Amino acid sequence: LTLAPGSTTSGNGPGPGPSVRRLYFYGASPALLGIQIVNVLLTFLTLGVFHFWGKVRVLRYVLSQTELDGDRFAYYGTGRELLFGFLKAVLLFALPVALLNVQRLDPTFGLWLEAAIVGYVLIYIVLFPLAMVGARRYRFSRTSWRGVRFSFRGRGLDLIRLFARDTLLTLVTLGVYYPWFAVRRHAFLVSHSYFGTEPFRFDGRTRDLLGTYVRLVLLWLPTFGFYWFWFAARKQRYLWRHTTLGSLRFDSAVTGWRLLQLRLGNALILLATLGLAWPWARVRSLRFTCRNLRLTGAFDLSGVRQEPRGATAVGEGLAGLVDAGFEMSW
Amino acid sequence: MRADWEGVYFDGRVTVRQPARVRVQAEGLEVVLEGGDTFHWAYRDLVQTQGFYAGEQVRLEPRGGAGGVLVVLDSAILTAIRRAAGPVARHVHAPERRWVRGPGAAAAGVAVIGLAALLYLQGIPAMAAAVAPHVPVSWEERVGQAVVDYMAPESARCTDVARTRALDAIVATLASTVPASPYRFRVVVADYAVVNAVAAPGGHIIVFRGLLERTESAEELAGVLAHELQHVVRRHVARAVVQHTSTGLVLGALAGDASGLVALEAARALGTLHYSRQHELEADAEGLRMLVAAGIDPQGMIAFFDGLRKNAPQEETERESGFLGYLATHPGDHERVARLTALAASLRRPTQKLLPAYDWADVRTVCGKAPASRAAPAVPEASGPVYLAPVGDVAPERLDRLERYYSDRFGLRIERLPAVPLEAAFLDATRGQLVAEDVAAAIRRQHGRQAQDPQATLIGLVAGDMYIRESPGGWAFAYRDAGRVAVVSSARLDPASSGLRADPDLLEERLRKMVSQQIGHLHFHLKETTDRGSVMFGPIARLDDLDDAGEDF
After folding, report:
1. How far off is chain B from A277, nearest CA to CA, in Å?
2. How far is the C-alpha of A203 from the C-alpha of A181, rounded, in Å?
3. Residues contacting residue A27 through CB under 8 Å, at least 6 positions apart
4. Between B226 and which of A106, A310, B290, B493 could a Cys-Cys bridge form, CB atoms 3.0 to 4.6 Å apart?
5. How large is the angle between the packed helices B236-255 and B101-118, nearest 10 degrees?
6. Strands A148-152 and A143-145
7. What pTM does this model have?
């Protein structure tokens, strides 16, 4: 879930109806570039502190330019919250990570390889889930549509348990268990997401996706890895088609070919401009997501009530540190 | 100015849209909902959360986020609010001022580039210079020892006591100019043909045999050592580490969240090259000052670098200018010599001869090999006759051409001997290669009379692939036994043998060079040299080495 999901009509009417809705992204790359340049300057002048305010400006722009059923999303995060979240995350988690990195640079510093391995495993099994949960808690709680906030109510400990158990099973089964792990992880993240009082639900089953995984394994080498795009598209379509919010069901029109065009195009844009044109790449991705995501079923969210949940930005800070962004959910 | 606006109200409890009429008044907004409910929002309690960019709806909420949300599609309401409310509504966005964003972003872009350049060229080097003195010497020594062990392992060190003492004396003279230095300076001579010297952190300096043999006087070596000592004294390694890390941090800030990794890595690589250039320049200038302070004539240093420049392959002198000049890690040599000459002229001081009690030509043979002089005679002093002995099938035209070549080019007469028959006993069946020692022994047997002449040189020529039993690498281009017999194999000299297009001319040239080397060793008593212009260049590890070498002695 890169964006808070929802649906859109072509008209403005709020009434329930069986029509297909989609998200619209109206943002423009030059505006995003302008925001980014000013962010860089201020980040420089404030010795990095502005970074967090800059991040808020970008997110606020992106969500404000995203429309569902005639209404825009809104982002309420603040630079102050992100800064303190980051500082706490550093204190709590980054020190062990930094120690491990120092260790890796110079093995003569005297820590043992075993300790390093245990450390990395801990990062993966403990910090990743915590970051994923924390980042969602914060970002969802700061996102609203029609005046009602989203929330994420999964507990970090539960995801840690899931990671620990399923990582072990994946190792023991030499990777055969991995599809179950991926789907369980996804189900956890979706089914603990809420829009107001209304939960998102996931009814997918791993066995439906097994064929997709088998195909990936078989076709990976013969297609020089290019089958990955078709695999990812199939998987995305399946995962979205089994996601619901109330009477709404999501659908995705992503195809391997379109995904390949998006990713290769972005890679070319970044390479050709040494990465400076990333606003274009980002806008392309956002348009892609919005264009391919559909909502079907009765669009009736009148029963949804506001039920805000507090959340600190520690998880968001942690996600920035261990690189467990929102893309991880795929 | 309009005072009445269409809007939508969300009460913040449910998602229901309520059409609303918004009236802009002096104190605040009056909102009338469809059902008739009316309420007032004072401007000072209002926050604008959307509507900062073209096409965005205007979103107004009470401060603190509690309560409803008012959305108005027409952004002109912002201007109306600012007019009606005056200073109280100063925090509301002014759409008519959006035009400053374009120029503003452009100005910010220029400022970013300027700041980055300033930081990059001034800030970071200054910071590195400030931090480096606080890196503990013991840490530097530990790292330095690892470098030395790696680049000059015990087995490759030249440890001739008497001659090493001379080198130590030079170092001691130089070190006396920096009495407060915490480092113990030591020189290690490594037995490699490379023309280079390396300063490891913590005081170790590795001088390679190739460089030592290139020096014509103690003053020349002192120049190189002074340059390297300055790398140590000025802690260039520690500074480079600090600079590398902080450049990464700055570039990370520049890119923000973006994954502009390509730009980062490219810029960082450029940056480190640049810093090492600065360090080279610094080591040059300070090294020269060190020489002068120690009473050593700096002309030796200049002469040595000038000699390097003259002997450098063409492409290296070409990259002095322009962008490629910037990319080169070491300062363009021409520029370098000019800079040093100018500096030396400004620092005239009395000097005295360094190591007057030593013969430098002897000291520099610390690795036990007498170097070929820079000015080798065109055709050196020779001994007796040279015989060419084909082994097995060798094309007679090939032998004709070789014979003609040596007579035309060097006035050297070569006598051809009858072919030695190839025997199965020469072949190592498991490797499928000829055994060089056995071939040489066969030549010796077959041509007993010539082999017994202590002045004669016998060069065997064989078409098959060959290896040396005593030092079995993959293969051998040539082999010389303890006496005066050599064997050259043409198998691997053929470009076709490495999967390339067959090139008879190139094969012929390589064969000539290989034969010339044997003649050089056995007939002219020359030694292998590091001078690429000479046919005696060596060691020949790869065909590229052979192709680089010249054709004259």
Report:
1. 9
2. 15
3. A61, A62, A65, A66, A283, A286
4. B290
5. 170
6. antiparallel
7. 0.61
